[in-house]
Amino acid sequence: MSWELASIALLCFCVLLMYLPGYAVELSSNYHGLQINSFYGAGEQLGEQFEQQRRQMVKYQLRDRGLKDERVLAAMSKVPRHQFVDSSWRDLAYSDRPLPIGHNQTISQPYIVAYMTEAAEISSEAKVLEIGTGCGYQAAILGEIAKEVYSIEIIPQLAERARRTLSQLGYENIEVKTGDGYQGWAEHAPYDAIIVTAAPEEIPEPLIEQLAINGKMVIPVGTWYQDIIVLTKTENRIVEEKTIPVRFVPMRRKSFL
Question: Is the whole model's pTM more than 0.85, yes or no?
């Protein structure tokens, strides 16, 4: 067989392989070293890379900074953060920084997600309210720890996206509602813990009312300068503890949309 016919035959073979499901073809310029890689194999390799990045994230960003709750660390090790960010940011999903998720909103850096979850002291039987669903990542972490999670997102497009992602990942104990988080979700109150992922200028009174006795609320408060406040509601009083400085997006109210 002549070189020209051999080249044509090899090219036809490559075209045929391109239409087989699950495979990609790479052909070197000199027609030698034909490589056939399974999409599925590449997907598994990528999954292993993300899993390794999660392990490193937990070790260097969380454990080494003093976070100790093993249930929180296990949740952070398990939840695939890269599934909650746009594909263009996926390579940075486990980096020590917040990332944009659209609509002028962000997914918080991993440390802040874990810090707020640990500060809430959530039990396995807890009912938790989250204000500011965003992409759904914080809700997924809570869903790994608590019995029930109710989450409110004021931006309809983000709420729908979070519902879809959480459903695809199999979370059945998380309910997402589109609405004004400032008012809370009285229907399911009281809550053993409330986590707020957007910053109001002051703590909303409806959220305090919906917090159970001995429950904790973890919330960033302020305008340009913000601090995370850990609020504990007792039988007789409200105790507020100012913890770390942060920078969250402002809490949006329905009247200002």
Answer: no
